[in-house]
Design a protein that fits this description.
- The longest helix has 16 residues, at 49-64.
- Helices cover 42% and strands 23% of the residues.
- The protein has one domain: 2-Layer Sandwich (Alpha-Beta Plaits).
- The protein has a four-stranded antiparallel beta sheet, with helices on one face.
- The radius of gyration is 15 Å and the shape is globular.
- The protein contains three helices and four strands; from the N terminus they run E-H-E-E-H-E-H.
- It has helices at 19-31, 49-64, 85-96; strands spanning 2-9, 36-38, 43-46, 70-77.
- By secondary structure, the protein is of the alpha+beta class.
Length: 98
Amino acid sequence: MLVAFSISPSGADPDGGVSAAVSEAVRVVRDSGLPNETNAMFTNIEGEWDEVMAVVKRAVDVVAATSPRVGLVLKADIRPGHTGQLAAKVSRIEARHA
C-alpha cells in the first residue's frame, strides 16, 4: 500500500512555521526503512498495512510529544500484491509524456 500523509502540530514555531515538529515526524519515517519520499506538502511511504500504519502512528506520537493537538491528513492507495509503486506510478505517468 501507498500512504500519503501530512502531520501538523497545533502550535507553530515563533515565525509561524511547523518545520521543527514536521522534521521529527519525517525522521521517524526515514528511520523506518520503508520506501518513502517527502515533498512540500506530504510524506509518502510504501509497505504493508500494519507496518505503514505503525510508522504513521509513531510519527504522530513524536509530534504530539511537543504539541497538545495534532492534525493528520492521510490518503491511501491499497492495492494488494503490488510493490515498488512509489516509483512505478510516477514512471508510468512520465512515460506518457516522453
